[in-house]
Amino acid sequence: SQQGEEDPQALSIQEGENATMNCSYKTSINNLQWYRQNSGRGLVHLILIRSNEREKHSGRLRVTLDTSKKSSSLLITASRAADTASYFCATDDQGAQKLVFGQGTRLTINP
Amino acid sequence: EAGVAQSPRYKIIEKRQSVAFWCNPISGHATLYWYQQILGQGPKLLIQFQNNGVVDDSQLPKDRFSAERLKGVDSTLKIQPAKLEDSAVYLCASSWVGSRSPEQYFGPGTRLTVT
Fold first, then answer.
1. pLDDT tens digits, B12-38
2. Phi and psi at residue A60, to the nearest 5°
């Protein structure tokens, strides 16, 4: 079953701009994670936010979590060409260790 | 540390043939996952192992898919017989046990094309 849904499905911006992606989910969670996937590669873990946290930063990444709305957002500031990739949110399925991924947002950074 | 290893990276087979994928997780990671990722979609969990025991295989098409992790380290995923709709990238991931470090580490994947 698909838990998270990302919005938008595709995003194209100019290098240097900020990129924001949103994720909605359906059931209660312990944590929410964001992953990046470059074309033809495996997924790379970016950041994890726990259900008792509202905001988290890691370098140029900022993640927010609103458990009342069952939604999260990922902000990438000062985007670079190397940020071109697909971004997925993933939630633990009602506290289980397995992850349920959304469909992803395909981000393109134009030079 | 070495990452998750998978082989082969690419495989092309005809429908009704069989195929096997291999995965070696990060050393010390007790939990191993196999995902199927169809083009344009997010990964879907097929099976989760903890050591050599199955934790979750609810989405594994058991009539044609099988997986094992005999010694609690590396794992194989087999499809027999393959169908056209099995064309996808098969991803292996591993993680530590428990909720304190739930991040998963992914291998590069095996791209399967069934013709």
1. 999 999 999 999 999 999 999 999 999
2. -90, 5
